[in-house]
């Protein structure tokens, strides 16, 4: 059976962003071990998604048979993203930090894949994720040093969201201090590459 990896780039610099380059390094290491594997690339800079609006949210809530043509188009876009997610055995997320948070393009992606009854459902025992048995690797590139501090608003949020839809096997690879000086930047990248090689094995 073919193994599939979904690569999600969220840098505003597209494939030239440092987090995207780290994600690509992971993909290349993964390919060397899965030569028959399939890679799906979702670049949110080159193909940005609309941010969630009341109109789009109502399209998700409407019964399929009652949706207008415009609503069906909105839902089809969301369905395509969810199909990519469900087709993947592994997910690699390139994650820069912008103003202490995640890129707004990633938030838009999250808002399009978080669909009740599709990627999660509510039960008597609380919400249950419907996208389980997948591995997520997050390549987080940051100008400063934030991991393990209250200013790291990303890690908990990303972990909580993916846990919510059922993905619990999550690894974070941090490349921090990228804007401090060249020596710190080089050390951060070397450490990240070392960890990537181990995780992709």
TrEMBL record:
Give me the reactions it catalyses.
2 a quinone + NADH + H(+) = 2 a 1,4-benzosemiquinone + NAD(+); N,N-dimethyl-1,4-phenylenediamine + anthranilate + 2 NAD(+) = 2-(4-dimethylaminophenyl)diazenylbenzoate + 2 NADH + 2 H(+)
EC number(s) per UniProt? 1.6.5.-, 1.7.1.17
Keyword field contains NAD: yes
- Tell me which UniProt keywords the record has, alphabetically: Flavoprotein, FMN, NAD, Oxidoreductase
Pfam families, per the entry: Flavodoxin_2
Alphabetized GO MF terms: electron transfer activity; FMN binding; oxidoreductase activity, acting on NAD(P)H as acceptor; oxidoreductase activity, acting on NAD(P)H, quinone or similar compound as acceptor
Cofactor(s) the protein needs: FMN
Cofactor binding summary note: Binds 1 FMN per subunit.
Please report which protein family the annotation says this sequence is part of: Belongs to the azoreductase type 1 family.
Role played: Also exhibits azoreductase activity. Catalyzes the reductive cleavage of the azo bond in aromatic azo compounds to the corresponding amines.
Q: What protein is this chain from?
A: FMN dependent NADH:quinone oxidoreductase
Please give the organism: Sinimarinibacterium flocculans
Encoding gene (name):
azoR
């Amino acid at each position: 059976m073919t193994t599939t990896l979904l690569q999600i780039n969220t840098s505003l610099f597209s494939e030239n962003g440092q987090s995207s380059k780290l994600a690509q390094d992971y993909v290349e290491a993964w390919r060397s071990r899965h030569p028959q594997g399939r890679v799906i690339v979702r670049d949110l800079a080159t193909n940005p998604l609309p941010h969630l609006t009341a109109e789009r949210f109502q399209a998700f809530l409407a019964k399929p048979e009652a949706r207008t043509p415009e609503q069906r188009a909105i839902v089809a876009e969301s369905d395509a993203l969810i199909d990519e997610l469900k087709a993947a055995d592994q997910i690699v997320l390139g994650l820069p930090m912008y103003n202490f948070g995640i890129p707004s393009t990633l938030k838009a992606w999250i808002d399009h894949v978080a669909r009740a009854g599709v990627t999660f459902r509510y039960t008597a025992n609380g919400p249950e994720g419907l996208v389980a048995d997948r591995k997520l690797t997050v390549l987080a590139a940051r100008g400063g040093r934030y991991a393990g501090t209250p200013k790291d608003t990303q890690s908990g949020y990303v972990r909580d969201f993916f846990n919510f839809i059922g993905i619990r096997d999550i690894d974070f690879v941090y490349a921090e201090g990228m804007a401090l000086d060249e020596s710190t930047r080089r050390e951060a990248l070397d450490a990240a590459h070392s960890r990537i090689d181990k995780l992709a094995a």
